[in-house]
Design goal:
Elements (H helix, E strand, L loop, with lengths): L2 E5 L3 E2 L5 E8 L8 E8 L6 E7 L4 E3 L7 E6 L4 E6 L8 E9 L5 E4 L3 E5 L2
Parallel strand pairs: 2-11
Antiparallel strand pairs: 1-3, 3-8, 4-5, 4-9, 5-6, 7-8, 9-10, 9-11
Amino acid sequence: QVQLQESGPGLVKPSQTLSLTCTVSGGSITTNYYYWSWIRQPPGKGLEWMGAITYSGSTYLSPSLKSRTSISRDTSKNQFTLQVSSVTPEDTAVYFCARSYNNYYHYDDWGQGTQVTVSS
């Protein structure tokens, strides 16, 4: 059973860069044909898919966030990382990492989520 665990700072100042890491255990992030996504949920709102990195290292990013978002991976640590630059209070949300098979919209496994607050 694969497990995903998000980690990173819970508080980020406006205009700074938010960086979160998802550590995967019980399975490799390079296993065909899994996709590894970042999803967030702002307070009182629905889930928002942010982007994904695939088993081969290709990335897909939400058009609305593409200018400020990047996703990378460290296969030696079995981790993938989200970075969001120039954050504002509107980036305050619970951030989740998730796994899906051969797509980036039907998730089989989720991390527990981590709260990130953008505030000075």
